[in-house]
Amino acid sequence: MVGVIRRFQRESAQQGTVGIQTLGRAALPVQVKLQSGQMGTSRDSETAILLNPIESAPEAQLLLRSNVLVAGQNLVLERNGKAYLLLPTGDMERGDDYELVRCRQMVRDTGE
Questions:
Q1: What is the full DSSP assignment across 39-105?
Q2: Could you report the per-residue pLDDT of 58-89, keeping only the tens digit for each?
């Protein structure tokens, strides 16, 4: 499971409580490549955390390090013999060290 702390409350000097929002119950580390329009797909990959099964959902949700993805870039993910083009929807949440990215997904034709 993957979650983010949303609330912290100190009740005394020795005791506090936190509120944690679950982001994904079946999180999976994956490698993605950045794709920019005319620049093509990068050779380097970036580690991301896939928060939902990509094979069965119309939208993919990924956690990335902060400032990895810039406007106009898409992501490419290869999984189980298929290549997925992930198109960020613009609905992004940012923390100090992460970005939660929601993407429409398309299965790419690999030409095989």
A1: TEEEEEEEEEEE-S-TTS-SEEEEEE-TTSS-TTEEEEEEETTEEEEEEEEEEEEE-SS-EEEEEEE
A2: 888 999 999 888 888 899 998 888 889 999 99
